[in-house]
Design goal:
This protein is 31% helix and 13% strand. By secondary structure, the chain is an alpha/beta fold. Strand 5, helix 8 and strand 6 form a beta-alpha-beta unit. The chain folds into 2 domains: 37 residues, no CATH class; 184 residues, Rossmann fold (3-Layer(aba) Sandwich), CATH 3.40.50. The structure holds zinc ion (ZN) (2 copies). The site of one zinc ion has 8 residues, from helix 2.
Length: 225
């Protein structure tokens, strides 16, 4: 078979457990060379909230979020947002490679299985993005899993997140509203799932929306950071 990312022939099976000290199901559809270019995040010596390297408990960015009154989300990210990950997202999200969900699907689901929550909630995409892309990239990873789409965008014609500069992203107002009645959220322990943690703004707004609706606790997982 050929690698889904570089199209090179995959010669032999290889064992991911040898590369990392915790056992993840190895992705069958990428070659070893491609796989080595993804960098897993080691949460040790990282910010407790976003895992970026810091000598303090929390990094300056996260302290700033707390100061602004946003809730803690304890985000756990699996991989660094490096060149290879950018390439992956380009192929998966922007070039319509829906089958590429399979590279990280098992890993994300294994990670979610370690967390004790009532509801797994993907960050939604706007109607416009959905129409263009044809799928929500986060929902792709949650295939065969029970999850709840509790959130939706207030408006669908917003500028796409990746086209905004950092300041614009930090300044944007609450973009989410509940997609269901409040009773689905009340007293629930929720884990949000998103693709990339950049500033953390999207996840914090999503968490705030759910907490305002009565959620008991909201944490998050992202593939990349
Ligand atoms: Zn490859
Ligand atoms: Zn942080």
């Amino acid at each position: 078979m050929t690698c889904e990312l570089c199209q090179q022939f995959i010669k032999q099976s290889w064992n991911l457990n040898k590369l990392f000290n915790f056992s993840f199901v190895k992705p069958e559809i990428v070659c070893r060379d491609c796989w080595r270019e993804f960098e897993m995040i080691n949460p040790i010596n990282g910010c407790l909230e976003c895992q970026i390297k810091t000598t303090q408990e929390y990094c300056q960015d996260c302290l700033q979020w707390f100061k602004l009154g946003y809730p803690k989300i304890n985000n756990q990210a699996l991989f660094k947002y490096n060149f290879k990950m950018k390439e992956y997202f380009k192929s998966y999200k922007f070039d319509g490679g829906y089958h590429l969900r399979l590279i990280f699907k098992d890993m994300i689901q294994q990670k979610l299985a370690t967390i004790d929550v009532d509801q797994i909630v993907p960050i939604p995409v706007t109607d416009k993005t959905y129409a263009q892309r044809g799928f929500n990239q986060v929902v792709g990873w949650l295939e065969d899993l029970t999850f709840a789409e509790l959130l939706e965008y207030r408006y669908s014609n917003k500028k796409i997140q990746s086209q905004k500069n950092r300041q614009e992203r930090l300044n944007t107002k609450q973009p989410f509203k509940l997609a269901v009645s409040q009773s689905y959220v009340c007293n629930q322990k929720i884990c949000l799932v998103d693709d990339v943690y950049t500033t953390g703004r999207t996840l914090r707004h999503a968490a705030q929306c759910l907490l305002d609706a009565g959620a008991r606790d909201v944490t998050s997982i992202t593939l990349s950071r």
